[in-house]
Amino acid sequence: MNNIILLLIISVAALIINLIITPFLISLSHKKGWYDVTNDRKIHSGNIPRIGGVGIFISFLLTVFLFVVICKFADIKLNSISKYHYLALSAGFLIIIILGVADDFFSIRAWHKLFIQLVAALIVSFGGFNLEFFYVPFLEQDIPLGFFSHAITAFWIISLCNAINLMDGMDGLAGGIALIASFFYGIIFFTTQNYTAAGLSFVLFGAILGFLVFNFPPAKIFMGDSGSLFLGFCLAVIPLINNKGGGSSQTIFMPLIVLVIPVMDMIAAILRRRRRNLSIASPDREHIHHKLIDFGLSQKKILFVIYLFSVFGGLTGLLYTVLETRKLDSGFTVFIVTWILYTALFLILHYKNQARKNSVSK
Prior knowledge:
three-stranded mixed beta sheet; mainly alpha; 70% helix; globular; 13 helices
């Protein structure tokens, strides 16, 4: 079977499965009264279910099983990963989705959530999906991280989980960013012949697309923490799946380009809260989508702007990968330039928003 056809099949399968599951979840939520809470930071109004992440997870899980079965019978070679590694990966996914669902229903304390995320991340890291080396660009040297490799890998996974979680503040936003990222992940891993990572990426793409049918404004369902944490976990872990054993810090350069918007928004939130002597877990209304709302943009225009810059990030991530495959470190300049440009855009948006607020208050 042609690999491209297989990737198309599993994407469509995940899409169809979630198109079936999500309406059931919407109906069940209305019967049980499982609605998202509303407050001054929320953009929506009305009773909207918030367990869409369950549909993403179930459709992802079922389609990954289908993907593995097809590969086995079609004799398509996947990464040489042992059953132990798959078990660790599955345990991490299961823990993170259970955490998300529990938080959606019971509002778990931030530090308790962080601890459970740490457990899930360490299980995956000790299961063989970790960053074992610190790569020094242009010197072409890998410095062993030793035991610290697990701490750094856990930090990477937890950071992306919370980066996507923080972006989940508007209909279609976090899901759209994750959709674009998973699509470019799939293309990038396919071009580098990492078929396991490519397959998981396209399965995730189809599952998210099925959800977005019901989440695009006006949303009929939200993904909730079950969805945002699961998506962040997937987008952090999939790049760690490779044919070379433990990865290096170079492994995360591409994801940091593709996901530059949520990562930068998270960094800005942490700096903002620490500057005000607040806990980094303290919620506020100053994320990138809030700033764009304050400028008077509609939800759909905001999604267009952020989607556009996410696509540019994806294309830049693809360019980085193509350059790196031709000559080592040739793409690192792309990484640096991308982060400089997006930092400048965030700063411009921040100071223009501050100037607008100051002019209104006078």
